[in-house]
Automatic annotation (TrEMBL):
Ranges annotated as biased composition (Basic and acidic residues): 1-12
Region annotated Disordered, chain positions: 1-28
Pfam family, one: An_peroxidase
Key words, A-Z: Dioxygenase, Fatty acid biosynthesis, Fatty acid metabolism, Heme, Iron, Lipid biosynthesis, Lipid metabolism, Metal-binding, Oxidoreductase, Oxylipin biosynthesis, Peroxidase, Plant defense
Keyword Lipid biosynthesis: yes
Name of the protein in its database record: Catalase
Cofactor(s) for this UniProt protein: Ca(2+)
Compositionally skewed regions (Low complexity) per UniProt: 13-28
Length: 982
């Protein structure tokens, strides 16, 4: 495990450094061979995007082949049928190797072990006598840290000139297992995709390559068809040809469907099989084109450089069969090489994306989710219809069934238009000296830092990756202080009188911060090293440090940004938490923290002292996320640390042979999934209290109601909604998974926090006293919890209301907050962060979410007084800050926040589940254990509360979630007075 984490960190550091260099506008050193290449789309980045789409198309080809063939698993899109696989071949370079070809591992007399796989080219496992090409893949093993994969086919040219034609042919011929289907593919589908002229040329090449009988794999010549660099010698094409004295052998038995493999086995049983590896040198772009794979290099003579020997052996033994099975499972890729031997040309560059996607799909490490045609058609029709209807009747005023269908249509539109990839990607592709290896443990457990959730892109969503975007950023330095954020805070945000949210309790406020600490955290510079300065309104001063001198500016630590390209704004930021829903706020985001939180001696349980979290040297409990600590998050951390330990004990009892490390990781999976379920099915319907939302969240988790009308609508609009997300494959909707800056902006819900708190004994209802918010912040929180007791603290939060998410309801305590050695106004910080991170202002934010722009302040809020106050602060509706607009907007009935904020929630709530391997394809008993799956299915927030505080049973709501107000205990006599809390 430790070695895996070290590899991940090393890979991240390398990627970050390279990405930062490229992003910073520093001219990269010219890549070897680059002068011979021309990029599709005109640039490496545009070409990369094209190739990503082509890779997805090839995955769909694999899926179609699987369905047509009736196979139980996905196979290779090409070269599916292996004919021979050996691990003991050898490549020896010639002693007279020409001087200009002596590059890297290519040294006179050098010999290397080779893995070799011979195959038919088709994606179908058909009889060897069927018309087809044959291929060979070699993996030259130079050392523990260096390999070179060479791929060849037994025809000098490709049927496709470029990657687009290659994929078009694959799509046209996918699953073509009969003469009729092959004819339709070649003469109908292919011309539609590439044009008649290109289709005719491709058919000629295919006929030339497949229109003859192959007698023996040992007698064929295999051509690279694409170019590769050979160090300073420049581009070459290579081929593998039989040696002149190779024996012919008997005529093949064509009625044997596997005659080619049998013939090779018989040949090897009698002696070695030997080939010559030859290269053809580049001459010029006309005679030896690099970008066109359909043109032969006729004017370039073959130069023998090495000999490949497959030694005499019996491949039919158990040992030989086992070796063949291992070879068949390998993913050969021409980009497994060094920079001196990098592949060249359009088709080869496309192979990097295509082979990685195809092999990951075949291994169950990457997934593709085809959209049924009916869904695509219905989505377009419903989208137009609902857009027209919503001008008069918004979704939340519709009957529940129709509203649910409207929401699904809205979400699909957001998935198409409001996911922006911000990661620095590899363009053009780079070689790698070794094929990537995945630690087997990562298949069945969450990593500590979020890596290896997506096995095909191990760093996706991990700690340190960038926040994504739901809309293009709007970065306007000239408006950073317009209007003055301090003025905005004082005039529109400051709490005048506490406005309660009467449908919720304070546990709902605690819960959302508990979740946000799992999801998002921007790293700040140390206090005093790099600051943001906000000018204060005339006559106002502010002390930025405890005991500091009043100043005319408000100052606070700036966020660390990812370096931008020259001339680009610094609006890309890394998340110092993992983006996944993985319970990292409880377990920690790296191995050292996670291990320090466990009981000593390798036990699976988390450390607790008399049921409470142990205190660190600073007085704040030791847990996964310790910043911004207050009593509300302490309650949640304590509950779920206890829940983890209870799950551990249950697993240990049910599976006595399970090792402690496995118990720990399984319990973590179970608790994290239970948290996700509670948020989806309980917290969300509590704060968005409508029947439509409740049905939508149930559909997300476990599928829709059973009534035929709802199911018919979902069958038409979104077939995946019929099963619930845990029954589907992961789907990133075309953009690598990350949480977004807009998601962060929406989840700023500080008005939920009251400024004062009343505590009561849950057994009697008697008051234990009251405290201000400052009395339960930071180190003070644990003293209050221990003196009050967990049950009474939970009860006190359960019967109290949070604040409404509205203007004039921002906690005053948070407007003068001491944090990490600085004094900040958190409301000002929130406003400034959005402006500087390029989060669009409210009107642009609405527009980015496909909502109509507002033209007047009165359209933001139906309250005349609110509209008048907005006019006093802002010159125009286009200047209204996003947070202010979201707080001012009149929410739908039953909603705890605005419909505009809900649009981001609608998109990202589904995405948090749907992208996560452990909440989709690996949400299964084999990973979680049957006990774990049952635990998640049977339990909710009420169960967690009662398991650890059974004496709260009488107070929990009967017909609502634990986040609704609890029944208060009625004191039998007047309170005896304060019990030491005030």
């Amino acid at each position: 495990m430790y070695e895996t984490e070290q590899r991940v960190r090393s890979a991240r550091e390398t990627t970050t450094t390279a990405g930062a260099t490229a992003a910073a506008g520093v001219p990269a050193a010219p890549r070897a061979g680059e002068r011979y290449e021309r990029y599709a789309g005109g640039s490496p980045e545009l070409e990369r995007r094209i190739f990503e789409e082509l890779a997805r198309d090839l995955m769909l080809v694999q899926l179609k082949i699987r369905k047509r063939s009736g196979a139980r698993s996905v196979d290779r899109a090409f070269h599916a049928k292996g004919l021979l696989g050996v691990e003991n071949a050898a490549l020896r370079f010639r002693a007279d190797l020409p001087a200009d070809l002596r590059v890297g591992f290519a040294r006179p007399g050098a010999e290397y072990p080779v893995i070799a796989r011979f195959s038919n080219a088709s994606g179908l496992r058909q009889a060897d006598a069927a018309p087809d090409l044959r291929g060979v893949a070699l993996r030259i093993q130079v050392g523990q840290e260096e390999t070179h994969d060479l791929l060849m086919t037994n025809h000098p040219v490709s049927h496709a000139a470029n990657a687009r034609e290659f994929v078009a042919f694959a799509q046209a011929m996918a699953g073509a297992d009969t003469a009729l289907r092959k004819g339709l593919g070649l003469y109908v589908k292919l011309p539609r995709k590439v044009g008649r002229r290109a289709a005719a040329r491709m058919r000629r090449n295919i006929k030339a390559g497949t229109g003859r009988t192959v007698r023996s794999l040992a007698l064929e010549t295999y051509w690279s068809r694409g170019a590769m660099l050979w160090g300073g010698a420049g581009p070459v094409r290579f081929h593998l040809r039989r040696v002149p004295d190779a024996p012919q052998g008997p005529s093949p038995a064509l009625n044997d469907p596997d005659y080619l493999g049998h013939e090779m086995a018989a040949r090897l049983a009698q002696g070695d099989v030997v080939f010559e590896l030859c290269v053809q040198r580049y001459r010029d772009a006309e005679r030896t084109p690099v970008e066109n794979g359909a043109t032969a290099w006729k004017d370039s003579p073959s130069v023998p450089v090495a000999t490949l020997t497959i030694p005499r052996q019996d491949v039919g033994t158990a040992e030989g069969r086992a070796a063949a099975l291992r070879v068949d499972g390998l993913a050969f890729d021409p980009w497994n090489t060094t920079d001196d031997f990098r592949p060249l040309g359009n088709v080869n560059r496309a192979r990097k994306a295509a082979y990685e996607a195809g092999s990951a799909y075949r291994r169950g490490q990457r997934f593709v989710t085809p959209v049924p045609r009916r869904n695509a058609v219905a989505s377009r029709i419903l989208g137009r219809g609902f857009r027209a209807v919503n001008r008069a009747v918004p979704w939340h005023r519709m009957p529940a069934r129709l509203g649910l269908l409207n929401l699904i249509t809205l979400r699909e539109g957001l998935q198409r238009h409001d996911l922006i990839d911000t990661e620095v990607r590899e363009a053009p592709p780079e070689p790698r000296q070794m094929p990537p290896a995945i630690d087997e443990e990562m298949l069945v457990r969450r990593s500590f830092d979020g890596s290896y959730n997506d096995l095909s892109e191990p760093m996706m969503g991990s700690l340190g990756t960038a926040f994504g975007r739901n809309m293009p950023p709007v970065y306007r330095p000239s408006l950073f202080d317009v209007p003055n954020p301090v003025t905005v805070s004082r005039q529109l945000l400051r709490r005048l009188n506490f406005l309660p949210a009467r449908t919720l309790n304070l546990l709902a406020a605690s819960w959302v911060q508990f979740q946000v600490h799992d999801w998002v955290n921007h790293r700040r510079y140390p206090v005093g090293t790099r600051n943001v300065e906000v000018p204060l309104p005339h006559g106002m001063t502010w002390s930025n440090l405890p005991g500091g001198t009043p100043e005319g500016v408000m100052r606070f630590a700036e966020n660390h940004g990812v370096r931008a390209a020259e001339g680009e704004p610094p609006i890309l930021f890394a998340n110092t938490a993992s983006h996944w829903w993985d319970g990292s706020e409880v377990y920690g985001g790296d191995e050292s923290v996670a291990m320090s939180l466990r009981e000593p001696g390798g036990a699976a349980e988390l450390r607790l002292e008399d049921g409470h979290l142990p205190l660190g040297p600073d007085g704040v409990p030791l847990t996964g996320f310790r910043e911004n600590w207050w009593l509300g998050v302490s309650l949640m951390h304590t509950l779920f640390a206890r829940e983890h330990n209870t799950v551990c004990e249950a697993l240990r009892t049910a599976y006595p042979r399970m090792q402690e490390e496995q118990i720990y990781h399984t319990a973590r999976l179970v608790v994290s999934a239970l948290i996700a379920k509670i948020h989806t099915l309980e917290w969300t319907p509590a704060i968005l209290a409508t029947d439509t939302i409740a049905a939508g969240m149930r559909a997300n988790w476990s599928g829709p109601p059973r009534d035929w009308a709802t199911r018919l609508g979902l069958w038409l609009a979104d077939a995946h909604a019929l099963t619930g997300i845990p029954g589907t494959a992961p789907d990133h909707h075309g953009v690598p998974y990350s949480l977004t800056e807009e998601f962060v902006a929406v989840y700023r819900m500080h008005p939920l926090i009251p400024d004062d708190y009343e505590f009561a004994d849950h057994r009697t209802g008697r008051s234990l006293g009251s405290l201000g918010l400052e009395g339960i912040l930071g180190t003070a929180a644990e003293d209050v919890l221990r003196r009050t007791g967990l049950s009474s603290a939970l009860y006190s939060f359960g019967i109290a209301h949070p604040g409404a998410i509205a203007l004039h309801n921002y906690p005053r305590t948070l407007q003068r907050l001491e944090r990490e050695g600085e004094i900040i106004d958190l409301s000002v910080v929130d406003l400034v962060r959005d402006r500087r991170r390029g989060v669009p202002r409210y009107n642009d934010f609405r527009s980015g979410l496909r909502k109509p722009r507002v033209r007047r302040f009165e359209e933001i809020s139906a309250d005349p007084d609110t509209a008048a106050r907005l006019k006093d602060v802002y010159r125009s509706v286009d200047e209204v800050d996003t947070m202010v607009g979201l707080f001012a907007e009149t929410p739908p009935e039953g909603f705890g926040f605005s419909d505009t904020a809900f649009r981001v929630f609608l998109l990202m709530a589904t995405r948090r589940l749907q992208s996560d391997r452990f909440l989709t394809v690996d949400f299964r008993p084999e990973i979680y254990t049957p006990l774990g799956m049952d635990w998640i299915a049977r339990n909710g927030m009420n169960d967690v509360l009662l398991r650890h505080c059974p004496d709260l049973a009488a107070f929990l709501p009967r017909e609502a979630s634990a986040f609704a107000p609890w029944r208060p205990a009625l004191p039998e006599e007047p309170p005896p007075g304060v019990l030491g809390l005030a």
